[in-house]
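Trying the structure run again after the queue cleared.
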Amino acid sequence: MVLRVFSIVVLVILAPLCLADGHWSNWSDKTLCRVLKSEPEHVGYRAEAMGRGLECVAPSGGETAQATRLIDDLIATGKVTIMAASDVSEKTIKNTKKWMNVAANTWFTKQTPASKYYYPIVITIVGKSTSAANVLDEQLCEELNKKSYSTRLCGRYLAGYASDGGAGINSSRMNDKFHFMVLGTTRRTPSDDLGDTILHEAFHIYQLSQITTKRHDLFEIKYGRRSGDHNRDVPWWTEGTATYLSYLTYSRQPRIRQGYLKNMMRCELGDCEGRRAPRIDEYFELGTKLYNIDYGNNRMIAYRVGALFAAYLINDVGEDKLFEYYEAVDELGFETSFATHFGQPYRDYINQFEVFLKQPLSKVMKIIP
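Done. Tokens:
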């Protein structure tokens, strides 16, 4: 009798979570906030509101501190600096701290031969105002001078990011003495928490930190950006892995909607409903090997198909092998570390991957957890 009562209690407790996708997940943000206001501790309502990044949900006790504990320590010790333009909201700054905390916990605690190069990191966040971005640029120059970092990055980027709303890492850690991340928010919607973007850029910091040479050409070779049958930089490996790892890591965080990873990968392939994959068709129509697509007009095909290749690779060998590859890449270089840890040269792996891509989309998507 006791067991039966206990089972009923468990079902009652879990019921809101089980019903989320078929009930309040279809509500508008306004409706969800209105109902949450009347039932502020409802588990299902809170989870849905947090998943959307809505401001109407207040964190439970200790939740905020837990979400930024490591990054707060890194900021306090000067390893991470976050600077925001005057038109950037406090919510955006908090989200930046939250997701950098996730990145640091996930990747920067890994001990590799080059782990001492994960920091320092300077993050600048800009809104829509170019004048506010210019003021931030002046503050950035003062900060870089004060800390004796390279000042070649002063006055070169922030106004552009305010205009186009992109994000990027614009530094050479070995030469500039710090990682420089810029986050533009111009194109962001109110519900966008910047999570996958920040994780993407943070994974680039992980990648960059593994290679210690100061020589630009040698760096690009080891980094995998000179893996084409020409001498131009190519994005398939560096951007593909950063794209997939950012989505994968985001999907594993608390309160992220079930199916997020599959949905994002379907969107990367050009159809968020998953009925077809126009990016795969475009890739084959291009008639160029993935590792030969440079940063020209077709670069986004390399980003997106490269992300699917990263998923394919991880499905084959596991995540641990990917990080073992990075731990050895400074010593072995891109080609040798790839073949050593993944079992075959990257050109052969791409050939195998292309055969895989010619299957029905339903089979292709099975590699996405």
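The chain has three domains: 23-52, 68-209, 217-369. Worth checking whether this holds up in the mutant runs.
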